[in-house]
């Protein structure tokens, strides 16, 4: 089946509306969005994000024949191409040491994503999200699959992004998020997870974040990741595996890259 194509904006907390009907799937859903910079270098190989994704060739194509689901694309000056699929998943087969949270411990919805830098300069993808914001260092045992989960305009959003501090909130040291620096033409892959039925998962009251509970009957989903040109401000992290850390900031301009909404798959 050929993927559908949507032209959608990129930016913080903006609802993304499809231009045509999306396709309900029995097992999974596929979404594609891209942003084209001034040039598109020859793509390199994909790097697993935090060791949780599988390597795959980077793709500079905006329209991909996936054989299932619905696809879309967006063009902005950011130079980022995002692909994401969702399927029911968890607990992980053979997982040990489950802590009572995350895909290893309970069933839910799993997004597999690939972020490709189609521009000419390195970018920073904030795709390693701590369980809560506030610490000036990234925990060494951070779950690279963790994502914020909230509802935006009737759409379930799994998002890897920062949030602004609340009014009159001051931190002795800037809270950090983890991520990956992506060189021009390179890609990273990773996963994001939400329990099923989905529930609200956002930072605490020290940050400006959505507070409305997620409707457990929500029908559509999208995946978002914050990508900025502040790669030079990142520093190595104790997590290892190529993970860096940088001060958490709310997405500015078109930094929040989101796939178009699509029907949540069922098992």
Draw up the topology in text:
Elements: E1 29-34, E2 46-48, E3 80-89, E4 108-117, E5 123-128, E6 148-152, E7 155-160, E8 176-182, E9 187-195, E10 220-228, E11 235-236, E12 244-247, E13 256-258, E14 262-263
Parallel strand pairs: 2-9, 7-10
Antiparallel strand pairs: 1-3, 3-4, 4-9, 5-8, 5-10, 6-7, 8-12, 10-13, 10-14, 11-12
Characterization of this structure:
This protein has 267 residues and is mostly beta strands. It has one domain. It is 0% helix and 31% strand. The strands form 2 sheets. Strands 5, 6, 7, 8, 10, 11, 12, 13 and 14 form a 9-stranded mixed sheet that branches. Strand 11 and strand 12 form a beta hairpin. It is globular and about 40 Å long. It starts with 28 loop residues before the first strand and ends with a strand. Mean pLDDT is 76; it is low at 1-27, 36-44, 51-77 and 96-100.
């Amino acid at each position: 089946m050929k993927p559908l194509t949507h032209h959608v904006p990129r930016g913080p907390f903006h609802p993304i509306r499809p231009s045509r009907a999306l396709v309900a799937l029995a097992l999974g859903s596929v979404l594609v969005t891209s942003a084209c910079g001034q040039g598109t270098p020859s793509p390199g190989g994909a790097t697993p994000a935090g060791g949780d994704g599988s390597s795959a060739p980077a793709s500079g194509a905006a329209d991909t024949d996936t054989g299932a689901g619905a696809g879309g694309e967006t063009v902005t000056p950011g130079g980022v191409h995002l692909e994401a699929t969702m399927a029911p998943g968890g607990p992980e087969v053979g997982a040990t040491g489950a802590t009572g949270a995350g895909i290893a411990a309970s069933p839910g919805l799993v997004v597999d994503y690939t972020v490709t830098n189609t521009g000419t300069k390195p970018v920073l993808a904030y795709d390693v999200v701590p369980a809560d914001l506030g610490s000036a260092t990234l925990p060494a045992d951070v779950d690279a699959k963790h994502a914020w989960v909230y509802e935006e305009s009737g759409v379930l959003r799994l998002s890897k992004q920062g949030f602004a501090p609340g009014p009159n909130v001051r931190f002795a040291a800037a809270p950090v998020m983890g991520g990956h620096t992506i060189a021009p033409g390179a890609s990273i892959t990773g996963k994001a997870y939400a329990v099923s039925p989905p529930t609200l998962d956002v930072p605490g009251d020290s940050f400006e974040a959505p507070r409305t509970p997620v409707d457990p009957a929500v029908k559509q989903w999208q995946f978002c990741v914050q990508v900025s040109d502040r790669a030079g401000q990142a520093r190595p992290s104790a997590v290892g595996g190529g993970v860096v850390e940088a001060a958490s900031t709310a997405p500015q301009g078109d930094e929040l890259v989101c796939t178009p909404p699509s029907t949540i798959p069922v098992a």
